[in-house]
Specification:
The structure is a homodimer. Chain A has 36 helices and 31 strands. An 8-stranded mixed beta sheet of chain A has the order 12-22-21-14-15-16-17-13. The first copy, chain A, has an 8-stranded parallel beta barrel with strand order 24-25-26-27-28-29-30-31, surrounded by 6 helices. The first copy, chain A, is of the alpha/beta class.
Chain lengths: ~900, ~900
């Protein structure tokens, strides 16, 4: 016996997700817990993988297996393909392991042909429905499975409506639709040079191949890249007997969440349409009704539906996203899956489920993808400005957040606008998968049609992107590139603002304010903080950033870059004078001007951080970064500085480097010009003494010397730093505690960390540079070829985004081990941008760092990732027992 | 009791070199084996070190110890300082641990004053000699210890000779010299505002301080840097009772080698001057006579001298460099040390000593500093051209080699000429330590005065630099910058050529031919080859270089760079067309043009290498290196290529990188353009198949993929390489053996070598890039600050010259261990420039590499270094037993 590639719904379970896909495993699970699911079967992801090995064709053994399962379905229902009395019709749906909404394709009513349509008329006693289904099927099949442009069919439909002088599709008669079926079949024949396939088994085979092929269509590839889904998983295909929501007024279809996916409220949330098929709801073609109204329409069905949602939630222990159909008063469950939700909803649901005793705190914390918190942390509109702003329209609050930007109507224009540095809002009648890149790139999304579960809404929530959907007050003309709302006309390039939490659209740009973090968020984060071992600091070099970070829970500054202070407009002249100095005394004079300014910088940061530790990195970039590099600017600067153009140009020229990344920077500057680090050291220490004296608070500055590769460099620089500190203590007759440490960012430093730890009281891993030098990838230049690396499957992710644990991470581990060997209690942290990336934070936890440091907005993310690291560790330990 | 800082000659031994310096320990050794050495004592190097701690002053306890030893000398000789009957006079000489000829200072006749001169007259019955000594002492002491310009004294001497109308110093009478003494004392008084010190103890103290201080004079610092002598060793000072070679016709002085230092011939080789002091010989002021003539002058003394040389050579088991003085027919040994010699002499002496049963082969091999072989390997003049060249003059063959260059007369002009890219010959009346930098920078050295042991000759031999000394046929006017030789006038900037092996000076530039390696060299190198474990390959990318390397003993090619082939004028257009191609088919067309050329390259190299292994590195540099970068050249190229300036400029622009070292190069190119490596692979394999078919020789090409950082890169590229090889084998219906491996030059590759070894059959350490990335030092930019690192004592040596064993070497060790863990027999080599540097070769031996690869001229050096590594290892093992 060969492999089993096909599973009936009664053969699977939710644990078989990787084989049956999300949808298939859940259909099986629902079948097995006794919920009403139309019978069907699932063709496995393994079949999909083999499909690609077989040259993108189904192979005979598989076809045989499919036929056998089809017989089972026919037997169960007593229906047969092409039966003129009671024909079997099926849906064919993709079902990947990870839900990929809208990215994969679905075909309904498969099995319809000239015979089955007659059977369908008989069995439903509804000729109009039968022909409507037939014409829909021909179009869908032709479009999805055979690549014939949908527009060709839609044009015929529009023409028919014009001829009949009707507005709605539903106003067309059975006779009209029967004509359309013939016209549609003709289109097929014109396009493909053969008749529309009448044999359902052929239809099925082509449809399954289309689903498998769609796994690698460009939109799916982009979606996977965007959501970190491996590309070698494959998709399953679900073949399920049809039930009909469009069989008249006691039929309908809908989608629902067991709780509110926007805010987590414990109340069924969803929409339905009577006399419609499921795709009508998702595609946003008609605007559906709130689920609560179903109670009025069909109270018994609603009651049954409510019971099913409770069963599902208790069974899955999480909020579910459900699709259902009512066929002539009978409820059928077509899908259940864990519901996508906003970060706010995710936290509220998780905390509620803990309080309801359904899950544990650890489970709750694992449920939140740390990056999702991003959504909670970003600014909202300034209420004052908001109250004065003109409201354009109101739509559905599809995805929370606040966005301002210029209006564009096409994804590619958004991308171009972004490349010009503009912030842009994507405005569409409705979005489709082709718009993915524009959605990613936009500040926010506005659609005129579609509900809370439309493509735009679902995708935007997944991305944490602000979205107002179904805004029927506006008309969007994508061709003329204009929005009309009453008398108002908004043209491409005009500013609008969206409030995704209320669904309001405003004219113009609106300033924003920092978010308030309240409600369940505080409770949730208190669990996080009780759980984690890693401290979380921030990278900040201004009082403003420091303040934001402290609000987000930063426990110190892990990286205060001093060069940004040097770039300030008021200071750059002194910095430049320092650089062009010909001798030490000129240089000292310029440095003396900078001293009080740097001291003030540090003092103000200390005031924000109070007694929290502050790690200050001494000057790092090569000096030429502070000088202009085109002749015009050099000439201007030479004039202001009172030196000759020639001299200044020579200085600029002599400082230029072939590979500045590997050039005269970091501690190497201090070997040449120790007086620069001495000035900075003095500013750091004097500011701390001032803070102690004036404010009575003792802070312990951590002086960090960058780019150390050899302990002798550190020894040399440290000697100057210590001497300067000694001078300041003497002058002030006062002292404070301080630490002196180094970045570990040069591979050689990691490898010789035992030697370096003799002189360094702390290590801070500079994983940006460690990645650059460890791989030999210039961050400035590697974007181009790293994309190719990812495309060609050489790398999963750019190592600049996620710590490369096998290589760069291994260097970190070596450095940690060697450092501790020399200095048992050496303080260890990370200040590269990886410090706010969840998987990297987990890695830092594993190798025993004391803290991570990241940008202020990523502090809560890092806190949660740190807690998850502890929980996962506990789980591993338990598994090991 | 405190430290002992002073040792009588009878207290020391040759084993105490680090404490007593080379000269002092050998004087002690000679004293103890019963040779005639004038009594004296040595002030230790430890005293020198303490001298710097004491603020460059002698301290009371040391002075006391010196006085005590002085008393011993006085007692031994029955002479006293300032004695009017029989005064003690001493020499004060520096004596560092490593011989530093001419760099440190010497004072003779110390102790002379107005009383002692009377005693000297009485004891020698030679008034003229006494006053001559006195005036010499005043000048020397004033110059060396007190910094009074020598010229002031020499002017008075010249004036006196003019007044007396005599030519030679020796023509001046005692009365003349007595007057000069008074004039010299007046000069001293004018300059120093005090009388010339009459107290010998004061003279001695000042002289010792001067010697200690001279340890850190700029010339000494440069010399040490040049010769890798640590700067914290300090120098000893030798105080020795004077004997006189200038006491008339039965007195004399000389220097000799126990064998010929130029070719190693077993025959005493040296020079002497009758009625002269030692400095006269060394300084080259009078041209001395060959030592063999001493037999005619004083046969008994010569016989005694010959016996002494035998005793010394047998005692020291090596060729000695000896200074002696004959005082009134009595022989005194003033110094012995291991004689500096040319590489040829070194090898011949070592082989002879083995054959004479004095040393073992291992000892012989350890005696040769591998870098010395450099001298043997460089070209000599083309005999044909030489025979047609005009001989200018003939001098002493002071240091072998052949040099052509423009004439310059001042060290600084040589340095400037070098910086302009010129090759220059330093021409001087005589050289002095001030000329060191010019000597280093020059192609060769020509002096008009001085013998085989003059400053110029000794220093040049040490450097392996060609030198013709004592060329009395020419007159050198350093001020007018002209050489006159008979009717011939050679001006600054004219070309001359020197043959250091014959002492001939030629007019104009003469082309050179490769050296013949014969005689003892072959025997010596056969021992080397029997001893070493490491194989030695060469870095070569042309048949010409390969041929040279094979002659020098290369056992294969360790690095054949393919990019140099791309730069050839005939090919660069196709290379450029390949680069500016917009699509794969254009690119393939350009590559198709390059294929036959590359195939020919490899075929011709195989023919030279016969069955030796050849490692070929696929294209490594970033593509923009092949394109012009200024507008003019871009415009020209655009025209020839028939594309628009704008398009080409855009391409050039798009390929430019911030940090090209870390950019799109090496295997990264092949990820983007696999067809480039495919073409190269095809050329490599087709050439090998051609070679097999046409010449019947099977070569095993080793295909090396550069810049691998992650095994997935290698896997990707290797797949293309293997596919192409498969295609070629099929097309030709033939096959050969080959290997596929990688450079280990990216730190991450070293750290993950276990993974990489799964795909790589060999590793070749690219220590240039590994050093760049491991340290984060751009080789192009770091020159500037690495000098400061060495100056400030942070590094001993640039890690680009000598492998940094603690860091980069540690990465190599990690890679070796990991690589062998995965693939026990993985072939390991090095192809960075360190592969020809002796200490790095030793390191490669220690960590278990299979071979080193270096430039052709360094092959013999690497072979010897590899043998020495084995011998040192044996010694360590024996010590451990």
């Amino acid at each position: 016996m060969g492999n089993k590639y096909v599973y009936g719904f009664n053969e699977g379970s939710k644990e078989m997700k990787s084989l049956l896909g999300g949808k298939g495993s859940n259909l099986a699970e629902m079948t097995n817990i006794g919920l009403p699911v139309p019978p069907g079967f699932t063709i496995t992801t393994e079949a999909c993988i083999r499909f690609y090995d077989e040259g993108q064709k189904l192979w005979p053994e598989l076809t045989q297996e499919i036929y056998e399962h089809l017989r089972n379905v026919e037997d169960t229902l007593g229906k047969r393909f092409s039966d003129e009395e009671n024909p079997l019709l099926v849906s064919v749906r993709s079902g990947a392991v990870f839900s990929m909404p809208g990215m994969m394709d679905t075909i309904l009513n498969l099995g319809l042909n000239d015979k089955a349509v007659i059977g369908l008329i008989k069995s439903t006693e509804n000729e109009r429905f039968a022909y409507d289904s037939y014409r829909r099927f021909i179009m869908m099949f032709s479009d999805i499975a055979m690549g014939i442009p949908k527009q060709r069919f839609e044009n015929l439909l529009e023409k028919m409506k014009e001829e009949r002088n009707v507005e709605q599709d539903t106003d067309l008669t059975a006779a009209d639709l029967k004509i359309l079926v013939e016209q549609f079949k003709q289109v097929y024949k014109d396009e493909k040079n053969q008749d529309f396939p009448q044999e359902p088994l052929v239809q099925l085979q082509l449809a399954i191949e289309a689903v498998f092929s769609s796994w690698n269509n460009p939109r799916a590839v982009i979606y996977r890249r965007l959501h970190d889904i491996p590309s070698n998983l494959g998709t399953a295909v679900n073949v399920q007997s049809m039930v009909y929501g469009n069989m008249g007024d006691t039929s309908g279809t809908g989608v629902a969440f067991t709780r509110n996916p926007a805010n987590g409220e414990n109340k069924i949330y969803g929409e339905f349409l009577m006399n419609a098929q499921g795709e009508d709801v998702v595609a946003g073609i008609r605007t559906p009704k709130p689920i609560s109204e179903l109670e009025d329409v069909m109270p018994e069905v609603f009651q049954q539906f409510r019971d099913v949602t409770k069963i599902l939630e208790n069974h899955y222990k999480d909020m579910q996203d459900i699709e259902f159909t009512i066929e002539k008063g009978k409820l059928f469950m077509l899908q259940t899956r864990t519901g996508k939700r906003t970060a706010q909803a995710a936290i509220n649901v998780a905390v509620d489920l803990v309080n309801e005793g359904i899950i544990s705190k650890d489970e709750a914390m694992l449920r939140i993808e740390p990056n999702q918190l991003n959504q909670l942390l970003h600014p909202t509109f300034d209420a004052k400005v908001l109250s004065e702003s003109q409201v354009v329209a109101k739509g559905l609050p599809a995805s929370p957040g606040a966005a301002s930007g210029k209006v564009y109507f096409h994804a590619k224009d958004i991308v171009e606008a972004k490349s010009r540095g503009e912030r842009a809002i994507l405005v569409r009648q409705e979005t489709s998968p082709e718009d993915i890149e524009g959605m990613v790139t936009s500040q926010g999304i506005l659609t005129a049609r579609g509900g809370m579960t439309s493509h735009a809404a679902v995708v935007a929530r997944g991305m944490g992107k602000c979205c107002v959907a179904g805004c029927s007050d506006i008309r969007v003309d994508e061709e003329l590139r204009v929005i009309r709302a009453g008398d108002l006309t908004i043209n491409e390039g005009d500013f609008i603002s969206l409030d995704g939490s209320t669904g309001t659209v405003y004219l113009g740009e609106i300033s924003k304010v920092e978010p308030e973090l309240s409600g369940h968020f505080g409770e949730f984060m208190s669990w996080v903080d009780e759980t984690r071992r890693l401290k979380v600091r921030t990278n900040a070099d201004s009082p403003r950033d420091s303040k934001v970070a402290v609000k987000f829970g930063a426990e110190g500054i892990g990286l205060c870059r001093t060069e940004h202070m040097f770039f300030e407009e008021a200071r750059i002249p002194a910095v430049r004078r320092m650089i062009v100095s010909n001798n030490e005394s000129q240089r000292k004079k310029a440095l003396d001007e900078l001293l009080p300014l740097q001291r003030k910088d540090f003092y103000e940061i200390y005031q924000v951080m109070e007694s929290r530790p502050v790690t200050i990195r001494l000057l790092d970039p090569p000096l030429h970064e502070f000088l202009p590099n085109n002749d015009k600017d050099i000439e201007d600067l030479a004039k202001t500085m009172g030196i000759s153009f020639r001299d200044l140009k020579d200085t600029v020229h002599s400082l230029a480097e072939q590979n500045p990344m590997l050039g005269h920077r970091g501690c190497r500057l201090a070997v040449t010009y120790p007086e620069i680090y001495r000035m900075q050291t003095r500013a750091i220490i004097e500011a701390a003494l001032d803070y102690k004296k004036i404010d009575g608070v003792e802070i312990m500055p951590e002086i960090m010397i960058p780019l150390i590769g050899d302990v002798e460099e550190l020894r040399f620089v440290k000697k100057h730093v210590l001497e300067e500190i000694g001078l300041v203590f003497n002058e002030r007759s006062d002292s404070i505690k301080y630490m002196i440490g180094t970045m570990i960012e040069v591979p050689r430093a990691a490898i010789t960390a035992d030697e370096i730890a003799v002189e360094a009281e702390f290590f801070s891993f500079g994983t940006n540079d460690l990645t650059q030098m460890g791989f030999g990838f210039s961050r400035d230049d590697s974007g181009k070829f790293l994309n190719e690396y990812v495309e060609r499957g050489i790398f999963d992710k750019s190592p600049f985004e996620v710590i490369d644990q096998k290589g760069i991470g291994k260097m970190m581990e070596i450095a940690v081990d060697l450092g501790k060997k020399t200095r048992e209690n050496i303080k260890l942290g990370i200040c590269g941008e990886h410090g706010g990336e969840p998987s990297s934070v987990e890695f830092c936890h594993k190798i025993g760092l004391d803290y991570v440091s990241c940008s202020p907005f990523r502090v809560p993310i890092a806190r949660l990732a740190a807690a998850q690291a502890v929980i996962k560790e506990r789980m591993t330990i338990q598994l090991d027992k």
